[in-house]
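Internal tracking record. Fields below are filled automatically when a chain is submitted to the structure queue. Please do not edit lines marked as system-generated. If the sequence contains nonstandard residues, flag them in the REMARKS field before resubmitting.
Queue: standard
Priority: normal
Entity type: single polypeptide chain
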Amino acid sequence: MRKSTKRWCIAALVLMLIGAIMVISSAKLGAATLVAWVDGEFKIGQETTILEKSPVEAFHNIDIDLQSSNIEFIASDDYYIEFDECAGTLEYEVVDDTLTIGQKEKSVFMSMGFGFANNRKNTVRVYYPEETTLNNISLEVDMGNLYIEEMNASSMEINCDMGNVEFEKCFAGEIIIEADMGNVDLEEVSVDKIDVKADMGNVEISKIDLLEEGFVKCNMGNVEMSFEKPVESYEIYAKIDMGELLIDHEECGSTYKSEGEIPLEITNDMGNIELYFAK
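SYSTEM-GENERATED OUTPUT FOLLOWS
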């Protein structure tokens, strides 16, 4: 047997062993099992951070960088933060009007709590007054879902490696989203500029009021958007390589162009594009 083949066999056996340990520990302890690569070796454990809903100082900027946690932003009556059995050791502070949340040790965590996408545990929750206007929002998560409701911000920049990104009733000057693997679902969004890049996942943006310019790029998945303005408002460039292109239910071949005031560019390498405009 070649050395390379032996290495692959050993690697496969190691991964099978890790999987078996995670299944057994999750079944017995009922919690998310963590696998971390630290200092050149795998470490398996169940270290979590729990913080009950607690008040924090007022903030108008948010900077969050996490490896394995869901993140939820919820309109409330005041400023609070909550950690619900989050993977690893989390730390937070409010300094210079900025809420910062991160992990103390930078290691590669994988949370194997089954049903991760629908599990409300392993979640960071940030609460803010409903009428607050925030400035700059920067969110980066390696593995986890992002949910934002009723947020008003100057700029929102989101990078999600694996997980879904969901907005509901948000207003922003600029929204930038990069999602490597997962769906992007935005509903009732008013924005000056929007730039969405999705490598593998669907993009669904409904009831968007786009004021200045929009760009959506999808590599694999379907794109569906509905707009609050009529089609004549937009200078549209839409293109697909493989799939169907529909404008208000009408097939448009592989490319569609139109004249208008607001630039709108939507491209898809593998999947459909469906665009619907106000009448």
